[in-house]
Amino acid sequence: MGTPRTVLITGGNRGIGFSIAERFVADGHRVAVTARSGEGPAGSLTVVADVTDGASLDAAISEVEAALGPIEVVVANAGITRDMLLIRMSDDDFDDVIDTNLSGVFRVVKRSIKSMMKQKFGRVVLISSVVGLYGSPGQVNYSAAKAGLVGLARSLTRELGGRGITANVVAPGFIDTDMTQALPEAQREAYLGSIPAGRFATPDEVAAAVVWLAGDESAYISGAVIPVDGGLGMGH
Question: Residue 67: which CATH number?
Answer without folding.
Answer: 3.40.50.720
